Amino acid sequence: MSNQVLVEVSARHIHVTQQDLETLFGAGHQLTPKKELSQPGQYACEERVDVVGPKNTIKGVSILGPTRPATQLEVSLTDARTLGVKAPVRESGDVAGSPGIKLVGPCGEVELKEGVIAAKRHIHITPDDAEKFGMQDRQIVEVRVTTNGRSLTFGDVVVRVNKNFAAAMHIDTDEANAAAASGEIYGEIIK
Predict the structure, then answer these.
(1) Looking at the predicted structure, is the pLDDT value of residue 38 above 90?
(2) C-alpha span between 102 and 19 (Å, rounded)
């Protein structure tokens, strides 16, 4: 196996608990899958909510399914500034001490005490592929993305190994814009 990995752009999105989903969309509501994502079992939903920060509102932010144990909003640092919050760069799920935000749905509102992060760039990979690449869970690597006029090496990329993953690196929209990355693009893993 080569040291190339698919690089995908992860735009702003929300993961919600079942309880928060029902507050936002009504009792008994279930997520409506719209599009399968590259990670097995993950999908973009028809449901969207408005995110209200101290400075501005971002309307129509996509929810990703399935529901999770904790609600979190993943934004770019540009989105965080637009909203007026200081989102820490963290791995998904690490929301302790992060800023809160208000979510507004058609049936109600949820005021999060914490949960706004800028997702740390990461590579999803299976144990078999990790072994082939010579990488371990939580290892930090660099990934070189070669584009027309804006090639960039991303540092501080965390490797996340799980049997339920498909090999792909995720960067946010700010990072994609910095590298002029669009369409199908691959990066070279540098250990």
Answers:
(1) yes
(2) 15
